[in-house]
Amino acid sequence: MEWIKTAWEALKSDMKTRLGIAIGFSAFLVGRSYIEQLPGGKNIFAILAVPAFLICIIFWVYIILDLSNTIFNRIQEKRLRQIYTEYILNLTGNKYSIVRTLYDSPQHQARLKYNDTDVRDLMKKGIIELSQTNNVVLRHELNDPTVNFLLTSSALEVVENNSEKFKSNQSA
After folding, report:
1. What is the pLDDT of residues 99-146, one digit of tens each?
2. How big is the CA angle at 82 (ends 158 and 15), to the nearest 5 degrees?
3. Residue 29 has pLDDT above 70, yes or no
4. Taking the alpha carbons of 97, 98, 102, 105 in that order, is the dihedral positive or negative?
5. Coil, helix or strand for 54?
6. Cα dist. 118→52, 84, 94 in Å?
């Protein structure tokens, strides 16, 4: 039963280790003619050929699935980043002015009404976030406090990379 734990740990290992194991067992299978010429090689190959073949298949399939998952995640991340960028660049009205105010202010933060629907929507989309400092709520604004918000680093990057296009939206 200890060999099952060892095999499981090998499957959970990093990509380089799995690739090394897969290549090693593939080389063993490809080198059949050389191994059989060695003294006792036919017996060794007869005993180890089926387990080596199974291990080889399992590891290659695992590597292919891991690579396809990585490629899929990168494509998905790129697509989501493009949607996020398009959303920021197509902001209009109050949402645009909020982002513009945050971008123009020092340290990209400003005091905004917490219950403003545009502020909440920008928070939900991950464009702005609540600052962790200087958020003192006064007694008379308990229902709709004014608190510090800041532009997220990803939104700031989009605005800075497209500053001319972002500025041209100002008339919208």
Report:
1. 888 888 888 888 888 888 999 999 999 999 888 776 666 555 666 778
2. 105
3. yes
4. positive
5. helix
6. 61, 16, 7
Q: For residue 147, give the 3-state DSSP assignment.
A: strand
Indicate the residue type of 150: L
Distance of alpha carbon 157 from the chain centroid: 17
Give SS3 for 40.
coil
83-to-59, 88, 153, 169 alpha-carbon distances in Å = 36, 9, 16, 17
**Residue ranges of the alpha helices (H) in the chain?**
2-12, 15-30, 32-37, 41-89, 93-104, 117-124, 153-161, 163-168
Pull the structure tokens for residue 64. Answer: 């292919």
Q: How many angstroms separate the CA atoms of 26 and 57, rounded?
A: 9
pLDDT band at 172 (very low <50, low <70, confident <90, very high): very low
What's the one-letter identity of residue 141? Answer: E
Q: Which residue has the tokens 């398009």?
A: 86
Which of 13-17, 33-37, 61-65, 85-89 is predicted least confidently?
Answer: 33-37
> Is 0.70 surpassed by the pTM of this model?
no
